[in-house]
Specification:
Shape: globular
Radius of gyration: 16 Å
CATH class: Alpha Beta
Mean pLDDT: 93
Oligomer: single chain
Number of helices: 3
Number of domains: 1
Largest sheet: 5 strands, antiparallel
Bound molecules: adenosine-5'-triphosphate, magnesium ion
Order of helices and strands: EHEEHEEHEEEEE
Strand content: 35-45%
Structural class: alpha+beta
Helix content: 10-25%
Number of strands: 10
Strand order of the largest sheet: 3-1-8-9-10
CATH superfamily: Cyclic phosphodiesterase
Distance between the termini: 12 Å
Length: 187
């Protein structure tokens, strides 16, 4: 077992862009508030909060059984939530595969007894926090081909939250042999 699997952790399921897409997302960060560090940019699938060792083990087991085909996301606009003071990138539409992924992970989290928020799922990529108001505007669409999802840990550091991708699972259309298995642990 890896070290992180042996203790309680603050976890969330997410889509993590590859370096190229991440760079294009980073280039859209507005000059307001606290910018999200480039390596931290992601799209949250499901925020789990504090998860104990046994819940984490069962969640990862469930994640390995998720069957969702790879899909395309198109990030098309910069937008702003005034209540949370967050600047974010939004999608033209949420593909059914994305919603299915969210639902399957949510069901797994409920099954292990995690108390989840009832707020509606609004897929977005946070770009800046404590941000002053910005006017929504379209951006040159960023095409993001999603072929896997991950479990990430949020670690509080003096300089702010750092996110560590702990495990990845490939998206797939059916139960496969090796690739569909327990998921790859990230070194
Ligand atoms: P901090 O809370 O220290 O300002 P943060 O919000 O970046 O930093 P976390 O709170 O650990 O870090 O959140 C990890 C990820 O989960 C982020 O994408 C965050 O937006 C998302 N998240 C956090 N809390 C919730 C929540 N209650 N509901 C949905 N998503 C959440
Ligand atoms: Mg937070």
């Amino acid at each position: 077992m890896e070290g992180w699997e042996r203790r309680k952790a603050r976890l969330f399921f997410a889509l993590w862009p590859d370096a190229a897409v991440r760079g294009r997302i980073a280039a859209q960060r507005p000059a307001v508030g606290r910018s999200v560090a480039e390596e931290n940019l992601h799209l949250t699938l499901l925020f789990l909060g504090s998860v104990d060792v046994e819940q984490s083990r069962r969640l990862r087991e469930a994640a390995a059984t998720v069957i969702v085909p790879p899909f395309e996301l198109r990030l098309v606009r910069l937008d702003y939530w005034s209540r949370s003071r967050v600047a974010w990138l939004g999608l033209d539409e949420a593909p059914p595969a994305l919603l299915s992924l969210h639902r399957q992970l949510k069901a797994a989290a409920q099954k292990v007894g995690l108390a989840l928020e009832s707020r509606r799922y609004r897929p977005h990529v946070t770009l800046a926090r404590d941000a002053a108001t910005i006017a929504p505007r379209p951006i040159d669409p960023i095409h993001w081909t999603v072929t896997d999802f991950c479990l990430a840990e949020s670690v509080l550091r003096p300089e702010g939250s750092q996110y560590l991708v702990r495990q990845r699972w490939p998206l797939r259309t059916e139960v496969g042999p090796a690739v569909g298995g327990a998921g790859a642990t990230v070194e």
